[in-house]
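re: ur question from the group chat, yeah i did fold both. here u go
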Amino acid sequence: MVAFLLLLLVAVTLGIIGAAADGLGYLLAIGIVLFLADVAFITVRGARRLRRRPIR
């Protein structure tokens, strides 16, 4: 959970800097990609926890 929150914080920070600073649009793009990767990571991790082993 710490990794998720850290990546989310970095993504938001890069997005804000990229949107506010002139000529640093690539930081906004990196922030968006990082945010999407973070959402995919937490989705896969959550889906893995929902699977249950069959009772033998």
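okk and heres the other one u asked abt
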Amino acid sequence: MTRRLLYLLLFLLPLHALLAQEQQLQVTKIAPDIYVHTSYKMLGSVRFPSHGLLVSTTDGAVIIDSGWGNEPTEQLLHWIKTNLKQPVKLSIVTHAHDDRIGGIEVLQQNNIIVFGSEQTAALAAAQGEVTLDTTLPLDQELTIGNQKLVVYYPGAGHTPDNLVVYLPKQKILFGGCLVKDAKATNLGNTADADLTNWPKAIKNVQQRFPKARTIVPSHGPWGSKAALTNTLQLLEKQ
């Protein structure tokens, strides 16, 4: 009996390790009904995190940016079904890079409407990636159930099309890849960046949302408005 139990444990341990490796998603509550969803990808030897936002409303959930690929996006939908027990009303993508739109196919397969700007739609189509379902104006307030969201285009920065999303009730700003975290030491991927206009875009965000208290960047820890200040300082060094 003891030997059989030992064999069973030896079988289950690698299975548990495999399941842990396959789990590519983490969901963290940062305010009532507001969550950060984090997915990961190996970049070289580094397991790199990528954040999006999940908003639970009285009329369904809103996903801001997909998971980083199909698998974490499927896991996100499963998490919402299991934990929030509500349908996903819509998704908003903040620009056309893979860490923002990599799971759109899964969302659309689940009949979830994906919104983005006209620029993002054009860039995604040009890259042969995906087709957005509909486009948004560049400064648009949406009301979903009991939750207001402001989708805002501050100008080119990290990419030509980067949007931010603000939740006035919670004073939470999802800065996406436009904003670096407060302790970042570099600007990360600048392949599609407009380094000349990026500082102006950050200042536009500061002026548009002066009451923002919590800033969530795409990569790195979320925190105070120091993230905006640090991003400007990093840009000044260019």
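fwiw on the second one: The chain has a mean pLDDT of 90. DSSP finds seven helices and twelve strands in the chain. idk if thats what u expected
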